[in-house]
Please model this.
Amino acid sequence: NSNRMALLPLLASTPKGDKILMSETNLTDYPAMFLKNDGQGGITAVFPRLPLEFGEDGDRSLKILKEANCIARTAGKRSYPWRYFVITDDDRKLIENTLSYRLAEKNVIENTSWIKPGLASWEWWNGATPYGPDVDFKAGCNLDTYKYFIDFASHYGVEYIVMDEGWAMNTRNPYKPNPSVDIHELIRYGKEKNVG
Model:
């Protein structure tokens, strides 16, 4: 579809088996570059204008009603995004590549001791509906289901669970809590099971 856009990174393979990774970094307070089919077997860069006004466009989407005459408003004295390529015939080089980190702006968080990387289980992948002989409750966005995910994470050494949109009553009103989910109880239960 020539009207659809994609975000970076893009990984392409050549007929000879080489890999070409196109990505970007240092996007703090600046828009990403989009890619679009050029209609001739290639891609072209797209830089949408800065949105000024939005309107509703479905459950999880907004449509742009008004745009500025620029792609961003930002301080002139700054580092701008880098776009870069990695070309290799060895897939391991894609993982070993550190260009994104080396080109990005320096970390501005002074104390990073609170950041604890780790694995996460995400209920969205299965629609918050686990099933099987050990599921003896009604699965869905409710307290029992999220406790089940915490138990799973604890049992398999997964440090975190990601709670997507189940904490809210619906996606159109994220400030109204889901009465079937007790966030405070889930936090307490997660701490008891060493799951964040």
Summary: Helices lie at 91-96, 99-103, 143-156, 183-192.
